Amino acid sequence: MEDQHIKSAKEILEKIHYINVATVSEDGSPWNTAVSTSYDEQLNFYWGSSPDNVHSQNMRRDGRVFVTIYDSTVPEGTGQGLYLLGRAEELGQEEGTSVCKYKFTPQQVWINDEAKNEDGGYKYDIRIELNLSTLKDMLFD
Predict the structure, then answer these.
(1) How many domains does the chain have?
(2) Is the dihedral of CA 32, 102, 86, 57 positive or negative?
(3) Where are the beta strands (DSSP E) in the chain?
C-alpha cells in the first residue's frame, strides 16, 4: 500500500503548483497563506513573497511551518492531499525587487486516506505517514 500512497503523492506534487503555508503568529495563533511554488530534487519548496506579509514576518521569527497541498477542484470525498511538517527560512531579497525568496524544507510528510466500514461506505479520514526519502527518490527517477 505504501507504493500506491507514494505514487499518489508524486502525482499531487507534479500537478499542484500552489501550497498552503501555515505559520505561527507572535501570539501563538495560526496564519495560513497560499503561495505559488516550485521544488528541487531534495523536495525543498521555494516561493517569493513580500517581507512585510504576515507569513513572512512569522517565518523570520519562528521557522516552524506546516504545508498542505491538495486539488480543491475535485468533488467532495474524492481528493487526496499532502501534509508536510518542516522549517522555512528567508533566503534574501531578489535583486531589483521588493520580493524575498523563501525555502521550506519538509521533515515529515503524510497523505490522507480513508477508512471504510464493512459495507464499503466512508467511515473517517485518516493520515498515513510516508517515507520522505522514498518520495524524493520516486519524484526524480
Answers:
(1) 1
(2) negative
(3) 18-24, 30-36, 38-39, 45-49, 64-70, 81-93, 100-116, 122-130
32 lies in which domain range? 2-139
- Nearest Cα residue to 9 out of 84, 118, 77: 84
| Domain CATH number, residue 115 | 2.30.110.10
- Which stretches of 17-53 are DSSP H helices? none
Q: Residue 114's pLDDT is what?
A: 66
Predicted confidence band of residue 124 (pLDDT cuts 50, 70, 90) = low
Question: What's the pTM value of the predicted model, to 2 decimals?
Answer: 0.88
| Residues ≥6 apart with Cβ < 8 Å to 100 | 48, 49, 50, 51, 56, 90, 91, 92, 93, 94
- pLDDT score for 95: 86
